[in-house]
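Hey,

Quick one before I head out. I ran the complex with magnesium ion overnight. Inputs first:
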Amino acid sequence: MHDILPERIALWHRLEDAVRGILAGYGYAEIRTPLVEVTDLFRRSIGEVTDIVEKEMYSFDDRNGDSLSLRPEGTASCVRAAIEHGLLVQPQRLWYRGPMFRYERPQRGRYRQFHQIGVETFGLAGPDIDLELILLTARLWCALGLQGFRLEINSLGDSDERLAYRERLLAYLHDHADQLDAESCKRLHTNPLRVLDSKHPQTRQIVAAAPSLMDYLGAETRSHFERICHGLDEAGIDYQVNPRLVRGLDYYNRTVFEWITDDLGAQGTVCAGGRYDSLVEQLGGKATPAVGFAMGLERLVELLELTGHAVDPAVDAYLVAFGDAAQQAAPMLAERLRDAVPRLRLMTHCGGGSVKSQFKKADRSGARYALVLGETELERDVFGIKPLREEGDQRDLGFDELATFLSQSCGRDL
Ligand code: ATP
Ligand code: MG
């Protein structure tokens, strides 16, 4: 678990603001759910025989003896909340953000507290909504200036199709059981499809030659999948059909997809999701089709950092004041400036000090301008203004002139 320090926060804001803007542009509404849920919710949704539930959850008994867990992902909570509050009487397009907790082996791109923004839609059964989710994420990468992501998609079929495939896969894996890693051998008896997702090199080789789920899809599932592919073709979005793409959670059916980058080393998946039409019913609601995804914010922030995007300095102007009278007048003058210039980011110097030390702080703040208030400026009812990031002499401006100047040079679109 890590701290996010002020020096990196601008990257987080840039990412979060971009996502929020794009989701608003598609009509998605934010939902906020608790960080803690009863453990059983995750057992029943994610699946008993998954890495997350078997060994990654932070679970504890509360004072009443009920088992609670820090949420390892957001979908289960969204579904619970949607059922509990009767949201499913009409289609819903929801999004959430926040920390998730998994007891994993910490490494680059993999943490025990990490952050996701996720989207869940309910009540929409067709391939059009699956496509919308992918288009929306593609638009986001574009808005963030992130390039070179690979889109992998697959269809896991419906439950009877998956069952037939499961039989076939099991037979194949049994024939090669001596070459599988121990974890995967265990999965043979519990959840053989998860073997397809193994990160173990030798197991991956075996899996590469395994029968493909694609061959077991019925006409309806196949057409659902093909319509998504067709939409992606029309939108000019490249993708690879990866028949081994399953997902680490049990609740998916039909569409699954991942956006992957090669720029982050081993943990290259930045966004992953899929359809989960049976989960709502499984958790006690009335049968409702659903599809969603989640993206890992740490990985995306690291990419933004790697691409070296210029980050806006935190403040536009830094007000220094010399002498008692000026120091006393400074806070109220700064308030008036903030009134006059909407969205101005003005930091006022606090704690007095010499001219030299105050200017040093002004420089360190990253501000574009130092605003200077001394005895003479105060008497003449002006501010000195000195550019800090480019050449230029200090000059005097009256309050209104200064307000106009700052509005024009620091005004930002929000
Ligand atoms: P992975 O294969 O990387 O373990 P996952 O299948 O467990 O991912 P999901 O549960 O679908 O991932 O989560 C969606 C996204 O959240 C991932 O693609 C990744 O970007 C991010 N993510 C998942 N686990 C972590 C973690 N421990 N630390 C940082 N980011 C994570
Ligand atoms: Mg994982």
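The mean pLDDT is 94.

Talk tomorrow,
K.
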